[in-house]
């Protein structure tokens, strides 16, 4: 083996460990230790045979698909893990990483790294792209339909086969970009009649993923948008916007009905709702009574904040001066920026979801 090839292998190895949430220690891949992480693996997936994870959606699941112009590639994103910006919209791990962990696998590689060789495909693939929705949004990029096109092309090209699909879990996140775009373009006028359109399109997407051969499909219920710092800033991060949350509840009700109908139509009850609304709420309202649960100081206050409304987390001026402030203790913050949880926040959400996941799989 020539040195070039050897170097390439080493590089691949480091890249894989970087992408998959592990750190390399003296040539061995060591699990990443963290004071809240328990090393025992939670047996969430009773079927035991789920070895691949396929992911579609947005920044709640994206592990590095967006291009370098997105905030997730700027400091201080990635400061906790992997230690520098790598395309995750958080200081560290996101939902995908925790779902993979619960399956006992590494986080699947982002679609944009697909050219790096077949061994990297062993854990599935992540097609999620920050800022996306089911319809065109404010950000350029592949919406969910296009993400599924990418997936279908890989199946056609036999990169993934039917047994890969049968032994996989699919995670689909939809965290509100369709609604943000609608409000920017139209205000809140007519939003109620737009919500069913979003859920209908999401249902089409879910059906299509199932039609391609995916047997277990977990789709997120919408998180309480009214509790995101972008909405609570007006109350100095003290209270959630109930009007927004009631619209979210409408979305979630329609989603619940759609998923029940899908499960009726298919003979394998493939679809499951991952209730981000309930899990975010339980973390936000946690008074610390629950033994072992993670409690946050002021859960609505983000760690990384733009110094004025013109700036957001990660922005700098022409001379490169930081235009944001960073909290002292990232682990005491639930939200990282105006929309996304911290790594610790996702860990708490994931812990709140665990009971559901245990029943489902």
Basic shape = globular
CATH architecture verdict of the largest domain: 3-Layer(aba) Sandwich
Order of helices and strands: HEEEHEEHHEHHEHHEHEEH
Q: CA-to-CA gap between the ends?
A: 44 Å
Instruction: Give me the CATH superfamily of the largest domain.
Output: SGNH hydrolase
In the CATH hierarchy, what is the class of the largest domain? Answer: Alpha Beta
Largest sheet, strands/sense/barrel = 6 strands, parallel
Mean pLDDT: 87
Which runs of at least 5 residues are low in confidence (pLDDT < 50)? 3-47
Number of helices: 10
Number of strands: 10
Spatial ordering of strands, largest sheet: 4-5-3-6-7-8
Which structural category fits the helices and strands? alpha/beta
Count of domains: 2
Q: Level of helix content?
A: 25-40%
Remind me, CATH topology of the largest domain? Rossmann fold
Strand content: 5-15%
Indicate the radius of gyration in whole angstroms. 20 Å
């Amino acid at each position: 083996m020539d040195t070039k090839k050897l170097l390439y292998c080493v590089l691949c190895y480091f890249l894989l460990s970087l992408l998959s949430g592990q750190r390399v220690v003296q040539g061995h891949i060591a699990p990443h230790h963290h004071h809240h992480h328990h090393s025992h693996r939670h047996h969430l997936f009773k079927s035991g045979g789920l070895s691949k994870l396929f992911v579609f959606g947005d920044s709640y699941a994206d592990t590095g698909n967006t291009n370098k112009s997105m905030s997730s590639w700027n400091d201080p994103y990635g400061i906790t893990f992997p230690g520098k910006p790598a395309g995750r919209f958080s200081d560290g791990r996101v939902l995908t990483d925790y779902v993979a962990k619960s399956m006992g696998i590494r986080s699947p590689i982002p679609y944009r790294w697909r050219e790096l060789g077949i061994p990297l495909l062993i854990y599935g693939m992540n097609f999620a792209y920050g800022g996306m929705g089911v319809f065109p949004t404010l950000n350029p990029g592949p919406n969910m339909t296009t993400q599924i096109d990418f997936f279908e092309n890989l199946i056609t090209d036999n990169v993934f086969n039917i047994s890969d699909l049968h032994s996989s879990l699919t995670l689909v996140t939809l965290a509100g970009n369709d609604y943000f775009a609608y409000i920017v373009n139209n205000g809140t006028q007519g939003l109620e009649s737009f919500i069913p359109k979003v859920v209908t399109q999401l249902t089409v997407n879910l059906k299509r993923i199932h039609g391609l051969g995916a047997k277990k499909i977990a789709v997120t219920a919408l998180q309480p948008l009214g509790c995101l710092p972008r909405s609570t800033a007006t109350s100095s991060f003290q209270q959630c916007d109930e009007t927004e949350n009631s619209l979210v509840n409408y979305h979630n009700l329609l989603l619940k009905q759609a998923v029940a109908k899908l499960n009726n139509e298919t003979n394998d009850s493939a679809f499951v709702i991952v209730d981000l609304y309930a899990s975010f709420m339980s973390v936000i309202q946690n008074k610390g009574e629950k033994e072992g649960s993670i409690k946050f100081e002021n859960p609505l206050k983000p760690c990384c904040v733009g110094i004025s409304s013109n700036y957001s987390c990660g922005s700098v001026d022409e001379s490169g001066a930081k235009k944001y402030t960073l909290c002292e203790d990232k682990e005491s913050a639930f939200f990282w920026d105006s929309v996304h949880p911290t790594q610790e926040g996702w860990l708490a959400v994931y812990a709140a979801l665990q009971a559901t996941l245990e029943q489902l799989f």
